[in-house]
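Can't attach files on this board, so I'm pasting raw text. These are the components:
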Amino acid sequence: MNAEKQHKYYQSLLRNIVLSILITAITPTVVVSIFILDAFRVSYEGKVYDHLEVLTRKHKRSIDIFLDEKLMDIRLLAKTNRFEELSDATILNQKFNELQRAFDRSFVDLGVVDHEGRQIAYAGPFELSNVNYAGAEWFEQAINKTFFISDVFKGLRGAPHFIVSVRQERNGDPWILRATIDFGEFNNLVEFLRIGETGFAFILNAAGEFQTNPIADVNADELMVFFKELGLAKQSHLVTQKRTPHGSEVIYALAPLRGGDWIMVIQQDAADAFSDFKKTQRIVLIFIVLASLGIIIASLIVSKRLVNRISQADKEKEKAIENKEMLSQQVIETGKLASVGELAAGIAHEINNPVAIMIEEAGWIQDLLEDEEFGGSENLEEFTRALNQIQTQGRRCKEITHKLLSFARKTDSRIVEIPIAEMLNEIAYLSSQRAKYSNINIQTRFEEDLPPIPASETEMQQVMLNLVNNALDAMEKSGGNITLGAERNGDDILLTVVDDGPGIASANLARVFDPFYTTKPVGKGTGLGLSICYGIIKKIGGDIHVRSKKGEGATFEIRIPVPRASASSEAETDGEPAPQVSVDPGIQRDEA
Amino acid sequence: MNATKVLLVDDEKPFVETMMKRLKKRSIDVTPAYNGEEALVCLKEKSDLEVVILDIKMPVMDGMTALKEIKSKFPLVEVIMLTGHATVETGIEGMKRGAFDYLMKPCDMDQLIAKVNDAAKRKRDHEEKIMEARMQAITLRRP
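---
Top answer:
Structure tokens for the assembled complex are below.
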């Protein structure tokens, strides 16, 4: 998977996780909130309506009581007094005064009207004696009803008032006792009713005329149409809601008065009635928004972390897989080496026997030649030389097989005193064959009297062979020189492997000792060689460094501390710089 | 002094034959055997064999097994192990199990002769001491 694809994958993963969290967390929050809010709205609305209804009923009752009371007073007056008595202005005045005293001026005036509409007697502040009401609308209705309450009208006195009358009969002719009720007092019953900030009450008659003074502008005609549609007449009360032309909702609580002649209206702006609810709604909405924001932020953070973790884990897994591949590669290499070693040991052993026989046979001929019979032979000297040669070459074979066998078997990590010169020569010798094919010359160059170094022979051999092999790999195509050096450096011994191959790019220089770092083609290197060298040298308290520039070869320096005691003792004397074998070509630097 | 009597055990016939000739020339009486089992048979038949030169890598019965058998059945017979370089440790192991010495193949003739003679001398010394002990025992029994 390339980086961009991976990035896209993690992005979509992030998106999916965030969406899942949002859907599972926010959806229920929103749904529950909406549900609760709606339930709250319904119950709140019910409460507001109920409240208005109760208010309406209460006021309807007090108005009814007010009107009934007035009616009863008049009735009582009419029943308990004869027409003749009441027709007397003095008596009527007396009665009127009694009423006023008892009812605090609710009654404005009092009059007795005969069947023709003439006001026979009058008690009150206005000059209305002998006024003829025949033709007045209220009179026509009042004369035909036992009890009558008129609409509010201005009438002859030019001020709003209404009339309460009781019909009686005398000698077959009806007459009525009528009283004018103070509009102000009646109006107060309604006008002072206030609900919230915008709620108020008023009364309309059947024609849609105001029976009280509304405190705000009300379009009575429009309302009447609306009320008729509602069929108010059939109900004792009604609470409803209507959108005004201005666009605001208004709640109307209605109750019919006087058997439907009047309608009491309490109206309130819905916004006002529901202001508490709206407030709650706002709080809930803010809460939902904040909660959602919280959930979104949390889900983003959590998802981001989760995805980061996942990508981290993926990377580690990939690395682990890579390492595993590397390791299995390494195991295979080791296995290969082991089987090659076994094979070499087997072959060496098998060759050993025939060589032994050859040497023995040569020895036998030598034995025979020593007998006197051959003493005088003139070719004796030549025979002896040839036999010696056979034995010398046989011994050489033996050395080769022994070296092979010893190399195959060495796995010893015991620290011993290693003679430096011998070791370097052996390494040069072992590598010389390969170097020859690549046209590479391997030299050794060391000081005299170097002390032996305390290390494992096998491991030191491994380190040096590794460095030489890397150099050989690098110079495979180009050929060149490899110099194995050793010198004193204070108390330390400095071993160097110098080549004049293609060098190491500076970018790779810092990483050559990292495990699994390799620039060799896939399958050619494990990237473990130099890190193993590093480990071995560090283990014996030494240090390994590399100096190189692209195109100018590479120098590996190994510094090994030598204890003073052995530093002054032994000395390997293989002489001065002893050029050893070789030549070999090779490019493709890859020290790791 | 009688010629040292040696049993040479090796599966390489040409090696054994040449070695026999060379040793005989140096006054050593050699009996050949080509594996461990044959060696045991020879030892049983010829009680005068003094030293066994024993190769380690052999078919039928290898050197180490043969050494064990020889040392348990003929404790006085001395054994020199003959090894390839690959089995130096085996040679040493052999010495721990009672071999007189070990030599690496191909070996130097003079070295071999010296070791064979040393081994034979030790065997004779052992026998002498045992003889003396027996004589003493007999003398003690007859006061």
